[in-house]
Structures are given as structure tokens and as C-alpha cells.
Amino acid sequence: MSPADLDPILSLIIAAQAIKGSTVVVGLTGGVAVGKSTFSNSLATLLSEDTGLDVAAITSDGFLYPNAVLADQGLTDRKGFPESYDVAAIAAFLAEVRAGKPSSVPVYDHHIYDIIDDHIEVAALDVLIFEGVNALQFHDEFDVSIYLDADEPIMREWFIQRTIKFRDAARIEYSPFFDPWINVPDELFLEMANGAWDLVNLPNLVDNIEPNRPLAHAVIEWEADHTIRSITIRESS
After folding, report:
1. CA atoms of 25 and 42, how far apart (whole Å)
2. What would the DSSP string read from start to end of 12-78?
3. I need a surface site. Which of 32, 84, 180, 233 has the fewest CB within 10 A?
4. pLDDT digit string, tens, across residues 80-98
5. Which of 212, 217, 221 is nearest to 234 (CA)?
6. Helical H runs in the chain?
7. What pLDDT is stored for residue 89 in this prediction?
8. Domain spanning 3-233: CATH 2.60.40.10
9. Sign of the alpha-carbon torsion through 88, 93, 97, 102
């Protein structure tokens, strides 16, 4: 992905910052494993290098309720759904950023699959990229919003490959979530991964994520090899 590939997206953000003259908040969403974190970090780097603006990319994962809280509320199998996030904390964080104030974000550790006792300090910024599967439920807080998309079978395969990678990493470094799976035969592990997609990620995609697609200012569609199929910019009303 070259800077030229993202010219329409960069132009949207730069124009918003020029008009607003203060912190621009970019919301970025899409289904599980569609590449939100990789894309948001790449976009932050390109934007910073192209403009010299202070840019940071933050994931909404840090605002998930801890596993213990999810268990107490009967939401363990709803992790990633809107109700599994501390919505009030997200709203407060976005308000602080938009006001040009420093803030902080709890840290979610994908290795242990839970919130840890740590925070990321977020200084006052020119541009914040806030990414997450249900980020666009806060669409009114965003100056620019981006939806990443791919065909469902492609996203499923990316999720399965990512899950395999996490399982393999747990064979080297202990992970409380993946450790029970390290000696499970591949066939059963793939059955588990597909089941997680069908029972959790796909319903979340269909019921909560995709309905927000029309709200995005820009939609990027991926090919299976992670190249960009198309970028669609929504006309201003």
C-alpha cells in the first residue's frame, strides 16, 4: 500500500484539519480481522510524514470491560459487541481529545486476551485515529469516518489465520487464553475458530458493524491479498 493509494483518504483528513483548525478525530471501523489496526497505524505514519501533524492511532480494545466484569454480566460470549465496551469511558476520552486535552487509554493485551493494569498516555494531538469494530456508534464524534470492508469469506479466512498465529505463539510464550488449544489437533482447532466466527464475529458484523457502513465518509474495499479493490468517498449532503 503506497501513499498514492490513500490520497483520497489523506485529502479528506487534511481538509478537515484545515477547516477545523483544531484536533480532528477520525473513526475507523470494519469487521474482525479486516486489518483495522494495521491500516490505522499505517495511515497515522503516512499522515504524519506527509503533513508534519501530530497523529496517533488508538484502538477501542482498551475500553472493553475486563473479562471478570464480562463474566459477571453474562457477556463473555458477547465480547466485541457494543455492550461489552465501557461506552461512557469512550465518550469521555473522545471529548477530551476533541477539546485538545491530554488523556489516557487502558491497555488491552491480545496475548492474555484481557485488560491489563497499564495505560497509554495520549498527548494533545492534531489528529486522532480511533479504530474498533463498533467505533462508528460514536459517528457524531468523528470529523472523518472510514469503513474497511472485504467479502465475508475473506474476512473469515483472515480471522482463522490470525487465530492460528496466536495459537502457535502460545507454544513459545504462555497465553492463558490459547494455552488450552496448543495441543489440540488442527482439525478440531479449525472447527473451533470457524465456530467462533459463526457464533460471535459474524453476528456482530451483520447486526452491529455493517449497518454503520452508510455513515462512513469513505469506504475501502480489500482484495484477498490485502490490496485495495476500491475507495468510495461519500458525497457531502
Report:
1. 16
2. HHHHHHHHH-S-EEEEEEESTTSSHHHHHHHHHHHHHHHH---EEEEEGGGGBPPHHHHHHTT-GGG
3. 180
4. 999 999 999 999 999 999 9
5. 217
6. 7-20, 36-51, 67-72, 87-98, 152-170, 186-196, 202-204
7. 97
8. no
9. positive
